[in-house]
Amino acid sequence: MSGGVDSSVATLLLLGQGFQVTGVTMKLFDNQLLPEGQESTCCSLDDVEDAKAVCRRLGIPHFTLNFKEKFGACVVDPFCESYLNGETPNPCINCNRYLKLAGLQQRRRELGAAYVATGHYVQRAFDEQTGTWQLLRAADAAKDQSYVLYHLTQDDLAHMLFPLGGLEKRQVRQLAAENDFVNAEKAESQDICFIPDGDYSRFIQRHMPDAARQRGFAPGPIVDETGAARGQHNGLARYTVGQRKGIGIANPVPLYVTGKDVARNQLLVAPRDGLLAQEVRLRDVNVISGDYCPRAFGATVKLSYRQQPVAAVVQLLDNREALVCLENPQVRPAPGQAVVAYNRDAVIGGGTVSA
User: Fold this and answer.
1) Residues contributing to the annotated binding site for ATP
2) Would you identify the CATH topology of the domain 5-119+163-178?
3) Confidence at residue 143, expressed as pLDDT on a 0 to 100 scale
């Protein structure tokens, strides 16, 4: 229970279905992780109090679990390292993977509980023909969160519940208001919880000052598609693939960041066509069915969280790698982002974009 309306209503629905429920909130970090004067948009002390208030109203126990060390090791540090290595990571995926899934599932086993339930907008179903659990898109397409849960395994799905998967957001808020929840109209978090001002560069420099001084923030050349130097960048960690504004180069045709050469400390730029790609290579690939073996299959893929799926052929390779061959060229995702494959509404799996 994050303290938000979604997990609160999920708890309400589970009680209505006859489950014995205990609310748990993860304590992920202290305020010293944030710059002075800033507060997190989620996971704050106020959020914990909101979760407790909902549990008191529902008459169920509530516990706060200390996951600060795990959050630092599995989310914050890899986020910073990824940026310093020239990538653009999505820390929410690691948070779901290692804390909301692996971390809470471990606590579930220790406590002897049957399920971990969350307020994610996704659905699960058991496929009798294949004998496997499926992760499905939510009924509310605008709120669907299946993209960030592609790391789920069969064991995870067998022990998870997603009560909101068949509801729309307006229905969730209505249920919260009808039950006088303190967070019925609470705004949703839009930022990375540990960087509420969105200034990734400043955060990385504060959190990993020695590493940031050595790499990621040293000035270097901006190079175009012909290999010509076009100017100076202010540190590769300040840019991301696909960026147009803030490059600082006057050119008749707008230039975009198309890549980063970390070894040479070069920022690569080109007109928009330079962003198009028909193949994307992935690492750390997960197949939800558990049936991972080298093979090719047709699918639709999401190259980013908000993008509509596009047609592709996915070739699973050795070492948990994959090659995604797109039917039509697309603006390629930045290294460090995720690509997720679907068979209609079911998530097949996904992986991290390689450099």
Assistant:
1) 26, 119
2) Rossmann fold (3.40.50)
3) 95
